[in-house]
Q: What sequence folds into this?
């Protein structure tokens, strides 16, 4: 029972990280109609910025906090130099150009930080366990991730649903040309949203870094999962992204935690432990396919 | 013959005929100048051209951005690899089975994917490709993540695929066959319906064409030729691995098609040549500018793709003048 609880929490934690990554993606997608494959690169850059800044400041919190404005700046630069020219183009151009950006960023990281992976240590004050229930220890860092992730998710929901900027974002998602016609500085809004997305992606990257590792291309595979999440949730929907991220987080963790034992009942232990992660990944894509067949624009997407 | 002569009057015709002639006699040239490496690069160019031609059918003529085409290469390769690992080494068995599996899979996922539009289509094709990718990396018996060394398909008495030059010519003949088939296809009624649906789906539907079915057939055909490229790829290196269908490979294929000129018959061929020429020659070129820069050639290549997407829509094909059709 405790094991189950811990695995569910791990799923929540992964889901929240994925939500942070997917939130920026679904915003740029819903509002600017941009397929941004390079969003995973911003995730990677967040982790590398944090690695450098933590090294300079000798403090995880300070380094992480400094990395966020760096991500914002990078996002705004990418928006102004490349992304802005792509909004009016068709999806194929966007895929091609942002694919080029991925190659650029991966190689840039290799040139600056070197080919070998880096690691960020779990900060000392979180390098212990907390009892989530009496007698059930859970790593404090992962618990902190859940707390931070939840706070950021609530902040984002508040920003989108309750503030003037959020109102413009929602208006932009439903009709771009109309809000431009109403005199809103749409270029500024787009830069802001893109920068915001970069901050969330960077935050996800640097928070994941102590658990996984900081390496080239770390954002590429996770980006695909983020795309799956926004497609399941419905493009442009923050709520959909959150629900889908939670579902995907649970599938992934539960698959990893329980599939091996299940598979061992009818195949060898070695092939079961090799097949289980693959099957849990496959499950995610099957869920997505099922959702798209059932609702071709995702769970919370706009009907056309 | 008359068609060939009239083709030679346009820059596009001259370039294409020249390119095909060079490719046709390439093993003789590489033998004469003892450039074995060049032959292996050219083999890859020809194989990736086949893959790109097949993607061009749905992407260029159908207007459907499929972001998972490498999966068909993987299916072709794995069908050959698994059969050969199980002791069925005859190409007469392996190749039809590989293509059949790809067609069945393409029909299945096409039927699901084609229900969606725009970016959802991009993502669902990507997702299905990832699904195949993870399935293959979960096949511990066939190498899992590491891939598997296989023995090449056998065609006793006909051709020995271990002979590099013979294998190259086989690939080249198959490329010509693929191009011929593709040109017949797009100039047929079927091709016109497919292209019509690209520019105005509603109108084609109103005219009474079952657009969905036409697209599904195109998707399955593209899958079949993609599998052919995968079969050749597996036989080229005598090796299969999940890496051959990673989503980056699907991206590379899109790059090749767009680089060459989307929806142009020979576009994928130009694109593949350009892609591999850049990959082979950009690093040494950068090293000439500054020692050590060559290693980081993708810093230049990435922005190059951005520029192509922004400013060079028609690709190389559009540099050769207006198209007749």
A:
């Amino acid at each position: 029972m405790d094991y189950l609880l811990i695995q569910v929490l791990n799923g929540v934690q992964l889901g929240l990280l994925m939500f942070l990554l997917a939130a920026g993606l679904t915003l740029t997608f819903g509002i600017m109609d941009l397929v941004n494959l390079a969003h995973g690169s911003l995730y990677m850059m967040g982790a590398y910025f944090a690695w450098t800044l933590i090294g300079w400041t000798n403090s995880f919190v300070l380094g992480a906090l400094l990395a966020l404005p760096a991500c914002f700046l990078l996002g705004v630069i990418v928006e102004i130099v490349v992304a802005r020219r792509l909004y009016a183009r068709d999806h194929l151009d966007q895929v091609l150009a942002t694919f080029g950006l991925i190659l650029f960023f991966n190689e840039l990281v290799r040139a600056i930080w070197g080919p070998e992976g880096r690691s960020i240590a779990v900060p000392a004050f979180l390098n212990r366990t907390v009892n989530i229930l009496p007698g059930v220890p859970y790593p404090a860092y992962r618990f902190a991730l859940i707390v931070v992730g939840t706070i950021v998710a609530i902040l984002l929901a508040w920003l989108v649903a309750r503030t003037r900027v959020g109102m413009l974002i929602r208006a932009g998602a439903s009709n771009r040309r109309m809000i431009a016609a109403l005199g809103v500085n749409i270029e500024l809004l787009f830069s802001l949203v893109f920068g915001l997305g970069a901050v969330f992606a960077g935050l996800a990257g640097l928070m994941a870094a102590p658990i996984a590792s900081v390496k080239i291309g770390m954002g590429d595979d996770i980006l695909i999962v983020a795309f799956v999440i926004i497609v399941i949730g419905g493009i442009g929907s923050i709520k959909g992204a959150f629900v889908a991220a939670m579902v995907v987080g649970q599938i992934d963790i539960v698959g990893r935690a329980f599939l091996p034992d299940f598979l061992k009942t009818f195949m060898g232990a070695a092939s079961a432990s090799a097949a289980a992660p693959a099957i849990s990944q496959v499950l995610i894509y099957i869920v997505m396919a099922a959702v798209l067949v059932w609702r071709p624009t995702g769970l919370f997407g706009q009907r056309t | 013959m008359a068609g060939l002569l009239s083709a030679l009057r346009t820059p596009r015709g001259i370039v294409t005929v020249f390119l095909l002639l060079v490719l046709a006699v390439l093993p003789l040239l590489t033998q004469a100048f003892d450039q074995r490496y060049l032959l292996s690069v050219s083999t890859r160019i020809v194989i990736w051209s086949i893959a790109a031609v097949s993607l061009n059918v749905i992407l260029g003529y159908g207007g459907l951005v499929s972001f998972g085409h490498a999966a068909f290469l993987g299916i072709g390769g794995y069908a050959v690899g698994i059969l050969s690992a199980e002791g069925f080494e005859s190409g007469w068995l392996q190749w039809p089975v590989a293509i059949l599996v790809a067609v069945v899979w393409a029909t299945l996922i096409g039927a699901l994917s084609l229900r969606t539009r725009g970016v959802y289509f991009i993502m669902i094709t990507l997702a299905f490709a990832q699904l195949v990718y993870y399935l293959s990396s979960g096949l511990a018996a066939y190498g899992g993540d590491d891939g598997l060394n296989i023995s090449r398909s056998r065609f006793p008495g006909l051709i020995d695929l271990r002979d590099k030059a013979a294998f190259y010519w086989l690939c080249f003949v198959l490329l010509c066959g693929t191009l011929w088939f593709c040109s017949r296809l797009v100039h047929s009624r079927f091709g016109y319906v497919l292209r019509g649906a690209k520019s105005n789906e509603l109108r084609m539907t109103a005219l009474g064409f079952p657009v969905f079915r036409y697209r599904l057939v195109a998707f399955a055909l593209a899958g079949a030729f993609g599998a052919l490229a995968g079969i050749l790829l597996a036989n080229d290196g005598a090796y299969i691995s999940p890496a051959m269908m990673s989503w980056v490979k699907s991206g590379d294929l899109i790059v090749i098609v767009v680089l060459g000129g989307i929806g142009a018959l020979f576009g994928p061929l130009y694109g593949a040549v350009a892609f591999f020429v850049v990959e082979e020659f950009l690093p040494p070129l950068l090293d000439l500018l500054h020692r050590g820069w060559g290693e980081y050639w993708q810093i230049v290549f990435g922005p190059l793709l951005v520029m192509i997407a922004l400013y060079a829509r028609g690709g190389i094909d559009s540099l050769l003048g207006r198209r007749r059709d």
User: Anything to note?
Assistant: Chain A touches chain B through 51 residues (CB under 8 Å). Chain A has a mean pLDDT of 88.
